[in-house]
Amino acid sequence: MSIDGTSFRTELRNTKVLEGPFPPLNFDKFPPTPQDAFKNWFHEAVTANVREPHAMTLSTVDEEGCPDARVLILKNVDNRGWHFAVKADSPKGKQLAGNGAAALTFYWPLLARQVRVRGIAIALPDEESALDYQARPVASKVGAVASEQSEVLGDWKDLERKLIATEEALGKNSMTGVEKWRVYAVDASSVEFWQGDASRLHQRLRYVWSKGDCQWVKQLLWP
Ligand SMILES: Cc1cc2nc3c(=O)[nH]c(=O)nc-3n(C[C@H](O)[C@H](O)[C@H](O)COP(=O)(O)O)c2cc1C
């Protein structure tokens, strides 16, 4: 069935979003750091059976100053920030090497929650990237090494040939390709916790890093 512009608009308008009820929050009880607040919300997302709660949108800036964004998997959160891994020669890897400005966005629909992290992505020491690489299942390593990620693929057979060669290389040396593996941490300057509300009175709390005081400052935001 073809859908013209008008009926598609109607279809979109009839598509539900933020259907409550969602339990109200008390931001007064939120911990002093956004890392701890994030971990609490993450555990609640897991408990609520949110699918792939560790999937996040990583936004970066290319060399022309244009934004780019894609979904990645969160690897860890600690006092250095929110961690993820990339291949250094992928578009996102090159963009981050040229400009570390980055944002992460999580959306957990079952809970009507969004988390926005803004900051600078800093490459972690090579040893940490190597440990992360070492821990990857072989199949994930094969995929990562074989892929000329985001380059134009002229023929699927090229990929198949590369997979076979990569399997052989990894069979001889399980760390083949490690030199291109980078783990980054987004060192956050602000982190916002957004709780959606069916009547659109969304609750928002932003943590802002105060350089002068070396501590997080909490701000409520208008919906
Ligand atoms: C749920 C989900 C998880 C993903 N996880 C990763 C990942 O961990 N690493 C990765 O390189 N790409 C991952 N991707 C694919 C990326 O979104 C993207 O297509 C790819 O990394 C190429 O991005 P780039 O051209 O900006 O470098 C994932 C996509 C989805 C939808």
Structure keywords:
single chain; 223 residues; alpha+beta; Pnp Oxidase, Chain A; 6 helices; globular; binds flavin mononucleotide
TL;DR of this structure?
The protein is of the alpha+beta class and 223 residues long. The protein has one domain (18-133, 181-221): Electron Transport, Fmn-binding Protein, Chain A (Pnp Oxidase, Chain A, Roll), CATH 2.30.110. The protein contains 6 helices and 9 strands, in the order ααββββαββαααβββ.
Q: What would you call the structural class?
A: alpha+beta
Number of domains: 1
Just name the CATH architecture. Roll
CATH topology name, in short, is Pnp Oxidase, Chain A
Strand content: 25-35%
Compute the CA-based radius of gyration.
21 Å
CATH C-level name:
Mainly Beta
Helix percent band: 25-40%
The N- and C-terminal alpha carbons lie at a distance of 39 Å
